[in-house]
Design brief:
about 160 residues, alpha+beta, Immunoglobulin-like, 2 domains, four-stranded antiparallel β-sheet, three-stranded antiparallel β-sheet, 2 helices, elongated
Length: about 160
């Protein structure tokens, strides 16, 4: 049972790592806004008109964990790691008055959280099965060992005790 549980944990962890690879957000814009800074931010859960994130220019180095493709009509942000966690992410442009022009939004969830939500129940069931099978297995062995010990400790009598 231990080997099954260990193998399952390693396998699911590997799958979760591969699944957590990337999420994308496509952000179309008018060509007149081509020179504006790009924005990627996570919407606040309490105030849906606010968000926290990063601003970047197409020609500059992108923030860690992001890769950006820009064809002049849209930019696509590929998020390799959700540093701010699951939630609704916006992409947009920041105009000269620091107002964000929201272009698109998408609910992005880390697949590792989804995998873990399933994996913890599988582990729970496996642990319960391990406890039950260990109890059943050891209970039978304990009775045999006790019987043998009683027989060995009192060889001259015909006293046998069964538990």
């Amino acid at each position: 049972m231990f080997w099954i549980t260990s193998t399952l944990i390693v396998f699911i962890s590997a799958v979760a790592y591969e699944c957590d690879a990337e999420s994308t957000l496509n952000c179309p814009y008018d060509s007149k806004h081509k020179s504006l800074p790009r924005i990627l931010c996570k919407r606040h859960t309490n105030n849906h008109s606010c968000c926290s994130g990063v601003a970047f220019m197409p020609e500059n180095r992108k923030p860690e964990g992001l890769s950006v493709e820009d064809d002049g009509k849209a930019f696509t942000v590929s998020i390799n790691h959700l540093s701010q966690g699951d939630g609704v992410y916006w992409c947009g442009l920041k105009n000269g008055t620091n107002v964000i022009i929201k272009l698109a939004e998408k609910t992005i969830k880390s697949s590792i959280n989804f995998v873990w939500s399933i994996m913890r129940w599988l582990i729970f069931v496996l642990l319960v099965l391990a406890v039950i099978s260990t109890h059943a297995c050891c209970r039978g062995k304990k009775a045999k060992v006790t019987h043998i010990l009683l027989s060995v400790s009192a060889p001259s009598t015909n006293l046998y005790m069964h538990f």
